[in-house]
Each structure stands twice: as structure tokens, then as C-alpha cells.
Amino acid sequence: MTIKEILPIEFIEIEKGNFHLFIYAKIGRKKARLLVDTGASKTAFDQTQILKFVDASTLSKYEINAIGLGSSQVETQISYLPSLRLGAIKLTQHEITVLDLGHVNQAYKRLGFPEIDGVLGSDLLHQYQAIINFPKAKMELKCNIK
Question: Is the per-residue pLDDT at 111 higher than 60?
Fold first, then answer.
């Protein structure tokens, strides 16, 4: 059986005709603001913001450096989210990358936009067969239930 979850998308026009897309997820009982990034291979959280959701002791060094997000190499860590909700879809112990997204949040702050906690990457977008409906500002996710 397949269930469909529809999430609202927030569009922010960064400059004329250029947009960033955001969704809200829940980690435990706390709301997380995520940038939707189809070019990000893995869901990632900012190294400072993640501490709102998990204890620093859960972070461990990740031996492979990430490439992208505005710099050539980024030192990364990994952590596991005890509970990540995308609408009705609940993931437990989902592995995420943790890295410095401070430059992204600084840019948003300069533009007068709210900070992000992380980036929803293609690992989850692909797994849940995401379809972004731009005219309706919605994202559809599909989850197969056994």
C-alpha cells in the first residue's frame, strides 16, 4: 500500500525570478526549517542548529569530506535523528550529515530571511519519490507501507 503525503512549500524570492524552496519538518516535538535542495546528495543539518535537536555527544566525525554548498571541501560529521517527521511520514534513527551552513544562514540574514536548520537532500527526495508542484506550492511524497 502506498500513502501520499502533501507538504506545503514556502517560496522565497531571493532576487527577481530566483527562488529558494523551504519546508517544515519535525524532529521530536521541535519544528525544523529545511531548504529543499535537489542538488544535495544527502540531507544535512547545520552544526550549530542541530544542537536544538540532538545532544552534541551524538555527533561523530565523518571520514569523507563533502563537496558543495559554496565551498570546495567541507568537514562533516554524522548523527542520527531519533525521529524525523515529514508530515505523516516518520523516520526513526535516520542518518544525517552535519556541517557548517553558517555562510548560508548569514546570507539569509543579510537578505532579511529566516535561518534554516538544514537541507532536505536527494536521499529523502528520491526515497519518497518527491514531486514538487510549483503552481500549488506543494510537495508530494510517497511512502510504501508493507
Answer: yes
**pLDDT tens-place string over residues 28-72:** 999 999 999 999 999 999 999 999 998 887 787 765 555 554 555
Tell me the pTM. 0.89
Give per-residue burial for 43-61: e unless 16+ CB within 10 Å, then b.
Answer: bbbbbebbeebbeeebbee
| Angstrom distance (rounded) from CA 84 to CA 94 | 7
Q: Which three cell numbers stand for residue 125?
A: 527526495
Radius of gyration of the chain (CA): 15
Residues contacting residue 29 through CB under 8 Å, at least 6 positions apart:
none
* Cα separation of the two ends of the chain: 7
Where are the domains positioned within the chain?
Answer: 2-144
CB of 10 within 8 A of CB of 23? Answer: yes
What CATH fold (topology level) applies to the domain 2-144?
A: Cathepsin D, subunit A; domain 1 (2.40.70)
Distances (CA, A) of 121 to 16, 17, 38, 110, 146: 25, 23, 6, 24, 25
